[in-house]
Backbone:
């Protein structure tokens, strides 16, 4: 989770939204990313999507044996990618500030672990207070 938090901090330092993610296969990080919607002018570069992009083309067997760490509960788009690539486990930093599609993931057999990590909560709480319009844009409101 610490690597995902570091990614979230990179996003914040770049002027973006502080959400980070890493994909781990057999104990090694194969993809890391952070929300880059603002920085790249992209509608889809959430932290999880950026981690998938940076993992590059992988055989299905790699993703089926990986764990995705994310600082915030995954939205419907990111959950769709998790399901598409059959990631079996997702470890979530926090879901206090945003509850994504955890039930969908669980219903489809994905193991979910929510840490309620204080650093993740603080990063998002502060960001939402300081930039509510940017946060609402990111979650489609």
Residues:
């Amino acid at each position: 989770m610490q690597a995902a938090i570091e990614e979230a901090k990179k996003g914040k330092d770049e002027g973006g939204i502080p959400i980070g993610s890493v994909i781990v296969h057999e104990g090694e990080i194969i993809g890391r990313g952070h929300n880059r919607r603002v920085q790249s002018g992209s509608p889809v570069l959430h932290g999880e999507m950026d981690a998938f992009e940076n993992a590059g083309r992988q055989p299905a067997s790699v993703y089926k044996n990986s764990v995705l760490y994310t600082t915030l509960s995954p939205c419907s788009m990111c959950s769709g990618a998790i399901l598409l690539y059959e990631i079996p486990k997702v470890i979530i930093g926090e879901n206090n500030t945003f509850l994504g599609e955890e039930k969908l993931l669980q219903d489809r057999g994905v193991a979910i672990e929510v840490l309620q990590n204080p650093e993740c909560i603080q990063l998002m709480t502060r960001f939402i207070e300081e930039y509510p319009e940017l946060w609402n844009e990111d979650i489609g409101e």
